[in-house]
Amino acid sequence: MNTAADMVARYCAELASIAPTLPAAEVPWIQQTRNKARDDFARLGFPTRLQEAWHYTNVGALQRRFFALESTDFSVGQSTIEPLLYPGLDCHRLVFVNGVHAPELSAIGALPKGVELENLATALTRTPEQLEPFLGARGQQTEHAFNALNTALLRDGVCLRLAPNTRLDKPLHLLFLSTGEARENCAQPRNLILAAAGSQAVVLESYHSLDEAACLTNSCSEVILEADAKLQHYKLQEENHQSYHISSLQVQQARDSHFESHLLSLGATLARHELNVDLNGEGARCDLNGLYLGNDRQHVDCHTEIRHMQAGADSRQNYKGILDGRARGVFNGRVYVHPQAQQSNAEQSNHNLLLSANAEADTKPELEIYADDVRCSHGATVGQLDDDMLFYLRSRGLPEDTARGLLILGFARNLLEQMPLKTISARLEQKLIDILSQSHGLKSLI
Amino acid sequence: MLEISNLHVSIGDQTILKGIDLTVKPGEVHAIMGPNGSGKSTLSHVLAGREGYEVIEGSVRYEGKDLLGLSPEARAHAGIFLGFQYPVEIPGVNNMYFLKAAINARRKANGLKELDAFDFIQMAKKKAGLVGLDESLLQRAVNEGFSGGEKKRNEIFQMAVLEPQLAILDETDSGLDIDALRIVAEGVNALRDPERAVILVTHYQRLLDYIVPDYVHVLSDGRIVRSGGRELALTLEEKGYGWLKEAAAT
Lengths: 446, 250
Known about the structure:
The complex is a heterodimer. Chain A contains 10 helices and 20 strands. Chain A is an alpha/beta fold. Chain A has helices at 4-18, 28-44, 60-63, 78-81, 120-126, 128-135, 145-153, 387-395, 400-417, 422-439, and strands spanning 92-97, 100-101, 115-119, 158-162, 172-178, 186-187, 190-195, 200-209, 216-225, 230-238, 244-253, 258-265, 270-279, 285-294, 299-308, 314-323, 328-337, 345-354, 360-369, 375-383. In chain A, the strands form 2 sheets. In chain A, strands 2-1-5-8-10-12-14-16-18-20 form a 10-stranded mixed β-sheet, with helices on one face. In chain A, strands 3, 4, 6, 7, 9, 11, 13, 15, 17 and 19 form a 10-stranded mixed β-sheet that branches. Chain A is globular and about 70 Å long. Chain A has 2 domains: 4-387, no CATH class; 388-446, no CATH class. In chain A, strand 1 (92-97) and strand 2 form a beta hairpin. By secondary structure, chain B is α/β, with parallel strands linked by helices. Chain B is globular. In chain B, helix 5 (148-162) packs parallel to helix 6 (178-191). In chain B, the strands form 3 sheets. In chain B, strands 6-9-10-3-11-12 form a 6-stranded mixed β-sheet, with helices on both faces. At the A-B interface, helix 8 and helix 9 of A face helix 2, strand 7, helix 3 and strand 8 of B.
């Protein structure tokens, strides 16, 4: 029987052994960054429920197994990824298999002038000095075990850089594929998006399993939006129900920048989505939308932290959970308003629909406000399908399960409607319909 | 078509209907009138199959079969339609999407071929025109943000699309101005046919100026205390419900 400490030691030993083979291993700051992160991880170990940020989410099952970090060649054919693409979405595409770039599956295509798009391993080798401010000591969250584990590897992911006033002409689709074959693997993508003043991009991250192996995805992304930059970010998580998905996305926003996030979390036995946004300039705005579905024994945890650091910034969060079976959904949304962040607007809502008596929703808004001239609101509900609505639909002839399915879809729909890209929202809606059709009789009628 | 015998219904400890007898034949329009709290809405809901009501005595037969054992959807499939006094707003559920699902569920249950999207839309637009429902409302969420009049019109529109055998309209006239009332009435009159029947539940006589009933029944304290022709409604209008109580007391 392995103890948690043994497992941490095992990860550290494997990290140390593969360190010389990692990209840009000879660059001093990269080496130091990895070593320091490995020491941080060894010191921190996996989080426990005694830590406030992990109070509702137990990673015990995750830390009892070992997910291999060493990359091996997995042959994934073009035909495998075909069903995961979005018909009608003309895009730049990067594909990662177990966290490592797969150039043969990727299709970056021609890029507008001023846009640099490459995988991180290439960028680390090509221009390490340019990345140091973001990935080196300054860019670290040292007290976060999963971030430390990711940084200790610092192997691959996407690196997107936009020069001032450039616009990524087409959406960027990032596919993160996990495959186990004979073993349980760990994918640790590390993504960096640097959007200079006035630049714009649309990015879709999608996470999929290619087989039934239990894999761990531990993804870290950093987004830096300079003045007036705009990023529309979509994330679809649909890994298999044996897998673990831990992700953190850190966003730094300057004056008048806009970050828009749309999350759809469907898969994994345990999914944790951390999204931290620092609003560092006047007029900065973030809109965060999230929809999470859980069934069976799935556990999904959305953890947000918005920090209003300067006056006159807006944040809006709208998260919804649909929980069935014995699933558990967690929303922990923290809003911090700095004393000098006057005229801040912060809205937060979290609504949960429980479809079974054994499903559970935990919702925890945390507002920490140190300025006096602010508008902050939050609302949270946990409820069931409305009997009046059900009766109304059934009285018109809809079978009960179809009526329930329509109401569930209706509950989710306003989040889908807020997605500006209809090729994406239509596809995501179809995914919801497919899932609801398994438990509710939707398909026969729509 | 519909035979209600000695129907007693309670909600919790309270008995609301205390022995209703009513027979409705194809082609007939029956108006059920009565003061607030007399049990009118309870009767409508029980006929449509709403949960939460307990039938403690009596029976309801529809086309010769027991109705009370059927689910709300099975009743709809058999041709029963309830027009709601307070139509429910259903965010996120598109009016057309829902109605197409409803009509096809009924067609499927009756062994008919389902309508395709094109045929359905043609038919729905025609019916919307008939009841004066703004077409833009068809693409909105069911009743969401509709005015009171639009909600009632949407009920009549749904009725026109679903073409029920037995329509039960629960205070469809409440909250309508004269123009809306006329349109609602036209929708109901257009449905009148020797094979169909209508039960109009209403507090006021004025709807009956537009939809002329064959029979008027007065419900009071869970019982039908008087039945008659259209003239009964006019008497009620003139004398109010108090007159009935006095008449009952003597």
